Amino acid sequence: MPKLIVNALLFQLGWLTCVFAGDSLWLLIVAGILAVHFFWTSSWAAEGKLLISVFCAGSALDSFLLNLGVFEFSEPRTLIPLWLALLWILLASTLNHCLAWTAKPWWRASLLGAVAGPLSYYAGAQIADVRLPLGTAPTLLLLALIWALVMPVLHGFAKLYRAQYEQALRTRRSA
Q1: Which of UniProt's keywords are assigned here (predicted)?
Q2: Alpha helix segments (H runs only) across the chain
Q3: What pLDDT score was predicted for residue 144?
């Protein structure tokens, strides 16, 4: 239980660092958070694959939403800033840990995504001065729908890599 609490607290510290620091050297705190995370993780390979997959998929999703005009930053861009991309890797670090309880049944992940996803984006937008050109209510509704789908998919990534890790362990033990 203490590791789950620490995992949640480290995620919150990382979230605050990203939205307040922007693309500055303060983002090195995220590297420290990930180092602590990997120190406690039993499978570096499976967890690393999960973090990289979620980082890539999430960054692509947010960049797509950026290019659709859902978000607007102070300077024109086609890819999201590093601080926003790092939030995805931080989220991935919680999937097998403090957010594992939301994996089953699937609707828990959908409900959490539909509520917490838009609230996180809204709070981050307020702090980091990200504009929502579609308006607040339409953007939050759109994000709720997206995140109701995204969270179960992310848990699917976590399950896939966890199963690969467990299979590799069984193979090593039987050899």
Answers
A1: Membrane, Transmembrane, Transmembrane helix
A2: 2-21, 28-40, 44-68, 82-95, 106-128, 136-174
A3: 98
